[in-house]
Amino acid sequence: MNENVNRHVLSVLVVNQTGVLSRVAGLFSRRGYSIDSLSVGVTQREDISRMTIVARGDDATLEQIKKQLDKLVDVIKVVFLPPESSVYRELVLVKVNADAENRSAISGIVDIFRGGIIDVAPDAVTVELTGDQSKIEAFVELMQPYGIQELVRTGLTALQRGNRTIGLDDIELDENYSEIGRTPHHG
Amino acid sequence: MQLTGAEIILECLKEHGVDTIFGYPGGAVLNIYDALAKHSDDIRHILPSHEQGAAHAADGYARATGRVGVCLATSGPGATNLVTGIATAYMDSSPVVAFTGNVGGPLLGKDSFQEVDITGVTMPITKHNFIVRDVNQLHNVVRRAFQIAREGRPGPVLVDVPKDVTVNKTEYRRQEPLPLAEHNEQVTADSLEGAIEMITESRRPFLFSGGGVICSGAHRDVLEFAERVGAPVSCSLMGLGGFPGNHGQFCGMIGMHGTKASNVAATQCDLFIAVGARFSDRVVSNAKRFAPDAKILHIDIDPAEINKNIKTHYHIVGDLKYVMQRLNERLQNSAVEPNQDWLQEIAQLKKAYPLTYPKGNGLKPQYVVERIYELTQGNAVIATEVGQNQIWSAQFYKYQEPRTWISSGGLGTMGFGLGASIGAQIGRPEKQVFNIAGDGSFRMNCNELATAVEYNLPIIVVILNNRALGMVRQWQDLFFDRRFSQTTIDRTTDFVKLAEAYGATGLSLSRTEDVDDVLMQAMNADGTVVIDCEVDPNDKVFPMVPPGAAIEDIITEE
Ligand SMILES: Cc1ncc(C[n+]2csc(CCOP(=O)(O)OP(=O)(O)O)c2C)c(N)n1
Asked: Which pick of A10, A134, A157, B237 has the fewest CB atoms within 10 Å?
């Protein structure tokens, strides 16, 4: 079975303020939803942040995840980003054993993957690579024989393809409440 | 007008019509208490024995009146003492706003004296919570807190106010409460037609009425709906009072301690209509065998309840009162007629399996509850504790009106009832309030007797004293080979003397023939009364669905 069958990417707009990350993370842990990764950063609007969450579950669980997120007062909008209509990217930094002998071989692989070597030491290189998860996994596999010293991934981030957007411009946070949440529209 | 944070909190309370709060002072809220002293003409402060009592009282007040209940506690232990009360309100969707003090801004995050991260602690048990770091945000936060507590599906909101914020000054201008969204966007003509179609096709409709009916004030519309559709009606524990308990179509509760009639009707119906209810595990029991032949139509204001515990065939998300009115309009012009055969069948079941209990052999707790119903003509407010006392109170008193039944359904909090009855009595001074208790639950928070006496509240505490943690003991009796592990509390406390020590009237009751006299004596007494009723620890709550069984396989007696 394809392990990605039940993997779903959610994009979540939230009010940019303290506590919102722990509210979302707490929701997932408390209700036992499995989460592969969560990345968060501010959008073009300073008052709104956007989270990309990769979650696993059957359809009923996914429906609940969306609805429970929608109930959080600081959550503005939740959309699913299906693979066929979305672009996914993740950044990985990998520190690989590399001496004079194999450094150029590694560099060759990095080029093929359109990554970059961002730091060089006598016995190691640090590689930066961006891609969807399968590309990153393929690259990491190729690095394994050289010996990976450490590796860090940012978690997936995603947007819809084409000219469709999540609709940030329509969102009005009442001036008075922008620091403290929006006028709720959920139960 | 320049006001301090403490004054702004009180002004904002007044904006929302709050005239009573339940609180307990301490260092972090000194400034709020100082302001309260100056506002004592407008805002009555009730001082309980314990902050848990304040939280339950605010909750009881909210449940009895439909208004927001407000409680206040100091930082640290004051705040954590509210937690059980907040969780109780959260599980039962009760609109409570809890204020806590905290250490001053510069001391936050440094493990200062009596500092606790109460917003972190209460995140999973509040609808939302706030920590106010700037006095300029305070008025908007308080207004939002009331809006969130009341809007849609109600629930508790906590506002944590560091001490410096209560001292700092800012400009305050009075405002109207924030408007509440109606949540009826999804109630379209099409969606209503879909429901009407299902009802038209149904031969055996069944109505399940939950606490949402009471929140929404939809009880009259639900009654009209049930009569038009010809559905037998059951209530969840939270829904009691939302449908008249002596109505011909009423079958009693459904689920674990439901009636045979409700549970069989639910299993045999072809359309299961749930209104303002959430299919809790205590209702559904075995989900695979729940209403197996029925289409399920779910109407609720909270979209997350749809398909959460039970997969539904059709749903409408909206305010119940609005939805039921729209459905009734359509039913009026439809061909839907009550199916008398089906109603007859259910009436037969009701007759064949009435709620009963073994007579004789000393004072029966069920009889005491029945007599309370008769003597008050169903006009009292009943606040219960948790356990057998709670279920007997649910079964043997026929609730006629919303907000006359007050019980911790979702969390099942022992020790809830006395605090809740204090809040209820203060919110509904014209009502006779009973706290029906078990001896275990009573002992948990009987300190609040002091509060009831202090404020001269004519609450009648009826302790169904079986000298046991009866409900747990019942499970040990039925499912653990009668190994009564730590459920016998046959200790030496004399509840009559205890009541007297608190300044209440203490009465004891052990003979069936004395029940009416003692109850009348309590109802005619001034002030708080405790009745210690001696009942048998072997009396059990029936009917009962054994754990994991289908609800139709309910056991009606031992
Ligand atoms: C705070 C709390 N602790 C423990 C329980 C578990 N519990 C449920 S019912 C019950 C027994 C209640 O005993 P009592 O108050 O004497 O009522 P009875 O069942 O005898 O009427 C217990 C311990 C609970 N519901 N709440």
From this structure: A134
